Amino acid sequence: MTRPALAALALGSALFTLAPLAVAGETYIIPFPKGVDGSVLALPEDNPMTAAKVALGKQLYFDPRLSKDATVSCATCHDPAKGWTDQRAVSTGVGGKHGTRNAPTVLNSAFNYLQFWDGRAASLEAQAVGPIENPLEMADSLTRVVAWLNSVPGYRSQFQQIFGGPATADTLAKAIAAFERTVYSGNSPYDRYTQDKDETALTPAARRGLALFEGKARCTQCHVGFDLSDRVFHNLGVGMDKKEPDLGRFTVTHEDKDKGAFKTPILRDLTKTAPYMHDGSVATLEEVIDLYVVGGEANPWLDPKMQPVELSDADKADLLAFLKALDGDTPVVTPPALPAAP
User: Fold this and answer.
1) How far is CA 4 from CA 7, 39, 48, 119, 151, in A?
2) % residues pLDDT > 90 (the chain)
3) 189-324: what fold?
4) Is pLDDT above 50 for 97?
5) What pLDDT score was predicted for residue 331?
6) pLDDT per residue over 176-221, tens digit each?
7) pLDDT at 13 exceeding the cut of 70
8) Pairwise CA distance, residues 109 & 138, whole Å
9) Among the residues of 234-300, which ranges form H helices?
10) In sequence order, which ranges of the chain are alpha helices (DSSP H)?
11) Helix, strand, coil: what percent of the chain each, to 5?
């Protein structure tokens, strides 16, 4: 992975930072919105961004024919019109089967060190193809999907043009990941307040909430950086009282310290991505605040950062106002025309 030098370019009202992210082919220029630090975006050396690759990835992202019964696409669970989630507690896959985890937003996911709630995928590429073979999601096989892509003239020609050969599981993953690396949220009232020093961008309640967030409420124990996430794993106790709880990160590392630990989500566009937590068991932001006020749910592996805090009802209202001020300009993408099958 490299951290390429990014050329900053002011555009109009400076809402965006443009960064060239490839030198081969028709370079795709990512318009990072205000508040999103494109300089720290790490790209795999073997998957440079090009406009043609992003366009192919967009088609694949919206194509339900990559699933066993042609009913489920990436966009089914990560819908641009729903904050790039499905706004369900857990997602519904092929045949009406239900998963056990909440669909995290694709927004700003390019900055995650690891993908999925438990971090089992080391890159967007690895994440992109995982749902295809998941029996509770798309329930297909990569072998069948790749063969099908190569049978469709419109897809076959694009893979040949972009990758110099027929579709493979690797190039399928690279195309979808390239599209997902174009999806960001920023230019929120919080960004205008912090980046432009616009005192009017936040309401008085939201400014008080920011002070609580950074102070007495102790939110910055885990929610830091431009996306307000440390992007690592913590046990909040959610769901740990079940007979067979989801052990989260432990299923990947098999280390006791990771039992019940899940990745810290980013806090952008929260009002669009309810319900919350890895299992979608917390319905509202008010309930999220209440969970943190009591210090999470007790269990042997509760993160030591989870401590009770004293917040009045007025404090909670102010904190909620701040969290709502993290809503930004969420990209809403129109599904593209898809290549016709033979």
Assistant:
1) 9, 8, 11, 24, 37
2) 89
3) Cytochrome Bc1 Complex; Chain D, domain 2 (1.10.760)
4) yes
5) 86
6) 999 999 999 999 999 999 999 999 999 999 999 999 999 999 999 9
7) no
8) 21
9) 250-253, 285-293
10) 51-62, 74-77, 124-133, 142-151, 153-163, 169-180, 189-195, 204-214, 250-253, 285-293, 313-324
11) 35, 10, 55
Instruction: Look up residue 14 and give its two tokens.
Output: 């400076």
142: pLDDT strictly greater than 90: yes
Q: Which amino acid belongs to residue 159?
A: F
Residues of the chain with CATH 1.10.760.10: 16-180, 189-324
Contact 45, 56 (CB under 8 A): no
Average pLDDT, the chain: 92
Structure tokens at 126: 């690895």
Count, residues in the chain? 342
Element (H, E) at 33: strand 29-33
What does the alpha-carbon distance between residue 259 and residue 280 come to, in Å, rounded to a whole number?
A: 18
Token pair for 307: 């401590």
Q: Which of 150, 102, 118, 159 has its CA nearest to residue 277?
A: 102
**Active site (catalytic) residues:** 137
Helix (H, G, I), strand (E, B) or coil at 118: coil
In this prediction, residue 25 carries a pLDDT of 59
Q: Domain 16-180 carries which CATH code? A: 1.10.760.10
pTM comes to: 0.91
